[in-house]
Amino acid sequence: MKDKIIRSGFVNIIGNPNVGKSTLMNALVGEKLSIVTAKAQTTRHRIMGIVNGSDYQIVFSDTPGILKPSYELQEAMMKFVDTAIGDADIIIYVTDVYESSEKNKEYIDKLNLLSCPVVVVVNKIDTLLGKTANIDTIDSLVEKWHSLVPKADILPMSALNNINTDILLNKIISLLPQQHAWYDRDVLTDKNLRFFASEILREKILENYNKEIPYCTEVVIENFIEEEEMYSIEAVINVVRESQKGIIIGKRGMALKRVGTQARKDMEKFFEKKVFLKIFVKVEPSWRENKRELKRFGYIQ
User: What is the value of pTM for the model shown?
Assistant: First the structure.
């Protein structure tokens, strides 16, 4: 299939934190490739998901939420976004019905300078449906985004409830350039099983801990052994301070046990195989500022 000329291309999803980028990609791909939580900065990497039709191939990319970097980790995250803008055949810019268009406006300005097609998705319309006044609100948002990005197609939708996702998919297919496929049909993503194991565990950390804890942790899979009937996985949760290690572990280890159980169950569902999961917690001061560590964690090439 890779040598056959079809409609294919890189469709890269960008936008501010918490607008539903990961939910949108998961809905379009039909698999949960990106972790989803209510917390900002859930996505840290650029994650690809590949969709094949009889005469098209779409290579979606989920990216970190746009922000103004405060440390090296966030600098690396924003490089993923800028790279995604640079190599896109189509850009999907995701906003939602609550977000101010002034937030990180420089990226909206970039959309108007792109030569590739742009689709602006106004997400979360499900929260407004049911009242005439709210329908008018959606219409006014579409008009506002038309004025902000005149070249773009504007599509109100709900990624969570699959409202208008079929319209978006058809629009994307119509905009794809004619070229060869980039991946074989049996490839779903560019990430390996280790990556998804680490992301599943990181999702549980985001869901179970508050304040700075999730943003000071990084998960590394030290061992991933595929046995006949199960995967044996050893994971290390890196934290910045000793006090954070105590919070992660919890009284009598109960917090870590809860997170481990939740992660193991989700891994078994994702991998469709039994998982033996062992978790360690390690203090790694200033890993978010250390370029050598960021390279080891996959943020810097």
Answer: 0.93
